Amino acid sequence: MIDEGHRVTSWPFVPGLDGAGVVEQVGEGVLDFAAGDRVLALFTPGDRSGSYQEYAVVQEKDVAKIPARWSFEDASTLGVCYLTGLMALGIGLQTPLPFLKGGPTSGLQPLSVLILGGSSAVGAATIQLLRLAVPECKIIVTSSPKHHAHIKDYLGADEVIDRDSASLSLDAKLATPGSGGVDAIIDAVGAGSMQRDIFEALDPGGPRMYAQVWTGRKQIDAPDGVNSILFRGRDLHRLSGNQNIMKSLEQLLVQGKYKLPLPVHKVGHGFTALERGLELMRRGVSGEKLVVSI
Questions:
Q1: Which of 81, 128, 190, 256 could disulfide-link 215, Cβ–Cβ 3.0 to 4.6 Å?
Q2: The pLDDT value given to residue 84
Q3: Pairing outcome for strands 112-116 and 289-293
Q4: Which backbone phi and psi does 282 adopt, to 5 degrees?
Q5: Dihedral sign from CA coordinates of 171, 122, 127, 260
Q6: In what side-by-side order are the strands of the sheet with 209-213?
Q7: 22 by DSSP, 3-state: which?
Q8: CA neighbor of 152 nearest in space, from 119, 179, 122
């Protein structure tokens, strides 16, 4: 948003999609929250609703209470990656979401899925959500080797493959039941634009689904015979039960069914630390979430 102007209609502009803090005041129609509640929220970049400021105004449906055991720093990293992971399943793969009130109840229940970019926040969230949605699914994930232990031992993926493997598609195929290939691919990082051979991991006789998270680049063209679905944040209305997304996250946190997707890197305190965090992002961040306390 800052460097390239994505979603910016005019300047000055207050960015920030994720955040957590204390409720200071509620509107007359708010029923589930009160001043003093510890919460996380989905923020909307703009003058009043972006998270890069001390106070922000958000809608009740975009807020979730934080269990006492969760810190603000950890909770502030959950919203967008959780939302995107839900969309990857509910829109991208058209998979049932039994933990989302009003969510889809029928659709594809894949036997195996390849998630590209498991050390990204979206990838790490999607691993957990897919396990909740389709417990018996074989979850195969790509990442750099330094993140393999976190993805398999902590997040619960069945297999993790080196993202730079010269035989990535074959490795994924061999990890599937029957070795025919995966039913679907979820591309959290746009890997399909460069690693064209990943589509060979799809089972020729399967549903051949390819869910691609919009990363700010052009849509990735999938080979003939592949059911490719691109989705963006603005497509949330297409997901049934979308009004209950944060309520479902709140319940999963209370039940202990959803973990912190990635380790948190506390960049610093105060608005000057935002600049340091942004510079770290420009250099490249892998396997962690940057957090600034305001």
A1: 190
A2: 96
A3: unpaired
A4: -65, -30
A5: positive
A6: 159-162, 138-143, 112-116, 184-187, 209-213, 227-231
A7: strand
A8: 119
pLDDT, tens only, 201-242: 999 999 999 999 998 778 999 999 999 999 988 899 999 999
240 CA to centre of own chain: 18
Token pair recorded at residue 48: 């009043």
Token pair recorded at residue 126? 């999607």
Residue carrying structure tokens 């967008």 = 80
- For the chain, which domains are there? 18-79+242-293 (3.90.180.10), 80-238 (3.90.180.10)
How far, in whole angstroms, is CA 55 from its chain's centroid? 25
- One-letter amino acid for residue 161 of the chain: I
Q: Which two tokens stand for residue 18?
A: 């994720």
- Summarised one tens digit per residue, pLDDT across range 95-150 is 999 999 999 999 999 999 999 999 999 999 999 999 999 999 999 999 999 999 99
